[in-house]
Structure formats: C-alpha cells, structure tokens
Amino acid sequence: MNDFDYLDEKSVYLDAACQSLRPRPVIETLDQYYLEYNSCGERVKYPWGEQTDAMVEAARQKTLKLLKLKPKDYFVSFTLNTTYGINLLLNEISSEFVQKVFTSDIEHNSPFLATMAMAQRLGVPRVVLKRNVDGSLPLDENFAQAVVVVNCAANFDGRQLVNLKNVVKKVHADGGIIIIDAAQAMAHYREMLEKTEADAICFSAHKMYAPSLGVMVVRRDLTPKLEQNFIGGGMVDDVFADHYLLSAEANKDHVHTIFEAGLQAWGEICAYAAALDWLSARTRADKKRLESCTQELDEFLRSNPKIQMVGEQANPTMSFYVEGLDSHLLGAALGKQGIMARTGYFCAHYYLDKVCKYPPLIRFSLSYATRESDIERVKEVMRKI
C-alpha cells in the first residue's frame, strides 16, 4: 500500500470506476519523462526521442502481451479515452459493411450514443439488445453485415459479459464486426479478455492506474474495412499537392498511426507502460484484500433494508440508493466526511433511469488503493447518516 502513501488516513477514495488513483511508480515515470527526456515520439533522432520511442513501443507490446494477443494479428493505437476510440472506429468503418448496428441496454453513453449516431448517419436500423441478469448477451440475432458494440463489464454494478468469447464467435460467424468496450474490465478482470479475438477492444488507461489516455487494440484485418477521414501529422510518409502516402501503407509496422493523428501524449503513454508493469506485479494478497473489502462493504449495505442495491452480486463497483434520502445530498454528506463517491446515473442514463427507473444513485468503486480502514470509515459514517 506504500505506492499510495500520499493518501492521508482521512481521505477515502471510492471513485475508481471514473479514474483510479495512480501509484507512485506511475507518477514517477511521468515525472521522469518531463524531467529527463521530454521529446516527440516517432519524429526525432536525438537520444531523448529514442528513449521515448522505446518506451512507447514497449507500451504497445506490453498491452498485447497482457491480453495474450499476437502482434501479427493485432496492433495498439493511443487516443484520448474509450469514448474517443469507439467514435473514431464507428466513423471510419466503411458503410458498405454496415446494414445494422447493435448495442445493449446496460451500456455507458460511450457506445450507446456512438451507435445511435452511426445508425442515424448511415440510415440503418439500430437494435438495443436486452442483457440477461448475469450480464450475458442473447445470441439469437443475425449479425450479418452488422456492427456490434458492447461492454464486457458494466460501470454501475460490474456485471460481466460472461459469454464474451461466444458473442465474438457468433458475430464473426455471421459476418459482422464486433467492438468491445473494456473500460471497466482492464483494471481487475482483464483475464476475461485474454485471447478475445474481437475486431477492436477499447479502454481507458486512467481506469487502470495510469494517466488519462485511451487505448485501442485493433485487428489488422479490420483496416481494409476503414475509410480514413481523420488525417493529420504523424500519419503520413509523404504529401503531394492533391494526395498523400499514409505511413500505414508504406510500412506495416506503422499501422497504428492510422488512429494517431497529431502529437500524442508521449509522457502519459510511458507512464501507462509503468502502470502495466505495476498491475502485473499485483500479488494474490493484493487481490485478496480488494475482494475482502468488496465483500465486507457489500454485505454491510445489503444488511440495511432501506438500502436498495443495483445488481445481485458483490463487485468492486457497486451502486445503490437509500429510500427516502436524496443520493446527491448523501454524496455531499459523505464528501464532507472525506468519503469520495460518485452520484447520479454514471453516464448510463438509458438503463438506470429509463429502463429501471431508479432515482439518482450512489456508486462506491473500490480499487487496489482501498484500505481496510476505508471500509470501516464508510461503515461508521453510513451508520451515523
């Protein structure tokens, strides 16, 4: 827990589903970039730039290794966040491959709105599939010539796409394209994504103990189905009066540049590589502590008859409301006691508000930074309230 020693005892951070706290090795790597080799990647030949290039390439390779995917089949591009990555993909998939768009009811606004915009732009039907209670997706649809965008873990109760592998196989067997929103899975459930052969996996580094950054893991054979319409510096090898040569066309090792227009967040990418090392080094004890804290807090909340939980199983991301008590007021009261939690609908308005008709909720999202004393503090304050 020394990696979060800057967090004082009175501060209880329970908003990791939005963005996790950063351990010291990650912060130090970002500082090191700015203090020791602040330079542009893939553009310069002096030693600082060479070090940046090495760190960025390591980040790409570590990402594929973490997901157990082969570089000959996949590449990694960096962007702003999950939302940006999903939108970028949906705006560049050629219309000739899209006759229908699918998403699910428990989605974050990122895929929910992006699929809505894609369907409207192309004039094709959009289908919102109802996920099962266990998070699985029904597979009785025909996904031919379809784009499917779904999450593999919900951001309000953590329920997982338990039939993820079968979903990917079914979509591909039908001749569709599938994009996975993995924003809520990469920090603590990345094993479920190992060897998942989706067409693209999008997630946010800032939810997995790294700086603010978006990551896209994309199948190489998806690129012929794209129409490049977001172009800029860093993407081209040569430019003429009325045409240009893309770096990805000139060199297959530069295929990642098709999504990396302009200057990238080089320092953040370097720190992301450090976060991957830090995550990989988490021990069984670290995981057990998170599991124990999750179970204890979940049991405490469910034991109060006035507290209505969303979801049926204990999860580090848990949402609830208290009967007769406004969640925003409760969140403010908790905040005054040093307990930081999110209130509202967590960018999942359609499902939580329109489908379930819940009042605004409170979300506690735990992480490896959560201490046993944090749980005791939450219980103490909640009892008083």
Derived from helix and strand composition plus strand pairing, the structural class reads alpha/beta
The whole-number mean of residue pLDDT values reads: 97
**Main β-sheet: number of strands, strand sense, barrel status?**
7 strands, mixed
CATH architecture of the largest domain: 3-Layer(aba) Sandwich
Instruction: Give the CATH level 1 class of the largest domain.
Output: Alpha Beta
Could you tell me the radius of gyration in angstroms? 22 Å
Low-confidence stretches are none
* C-alpha termini separation: 29 Å
CATH superfamily of the largest domain: Type I PLP-dependent aspartate aminotransferase-like (Major domain)
CATH topology of the largest domain: Aspartate Aminotransferase, domain 2
Q: Give the overall silhouette.
A: globular
Main β-sheet, spatial strand arrangement: 2-8-7-6-5-3-4
Helix content: 25-40%
What is the secondary structure topology, with strand pairs?
Elements: E1 12-13, H1 24-36, H2 47-67, E2 74-79, H3 82-92, E3 100-104, H4 109-122, E4 126-129, E5 146-151, H5 164-174, E6 177-181, E7 200-204, E8 214-219, E9 236-239, E10 244-246, H6 247-250, H7 266-280, H8 284-302, E11 307-310, E12 317-322, H9 327-336, E13 339-340, E14 342-344, H10 349-355, E15 361-365, H11 372-384
Parallel strand pairs: 1-13, 3-4, 3-5, 5-6, 6-7
Antiparallel strand pairs: 2-8, 7-8, 9-10, 11-12, 12-15, 14-15
Helix pairs in contact: 1-7, 2-7, 3-4, 8-11
